[in-house]
Amino acid sequence: xxxxxxxxxxxxxxxxxxxxxxxxxxxxxxxxxxxxxxxxxxxxxxxxxxxxxxxxxxxxxxxxxxxxxxxxxxxxxxxxxxxxxxx
Length: 87
Description:
- The mean pLDDT is 95.
- The chain has helices at residues 3-13, 23-43, 48-71, 73-83.
- The protein has four helices and no strands.
- The longest helix is centred in the last third of the chain and has 24 residues, at 48-71.
- It is mainly alpha-helical and 87 residues long.
């Protein structure tokens, strides 16, 4: 991920410009990385190291989304809609 892509995600989903640790920002960055790695794994189907990393990222995003759904359900629903995730 390029630094300017990450900074646009932070500015779009964060509360401030330097808000990199909030849950919506982390989920947005993980979603972007997951989309990139998914296309890579589809092209290089024998790249098992990348596939394992992708599975770990999906699990991390799932845990963050579960936390967000339990603590702030309204913010969770809006984030899901903005990112276009099927949940």
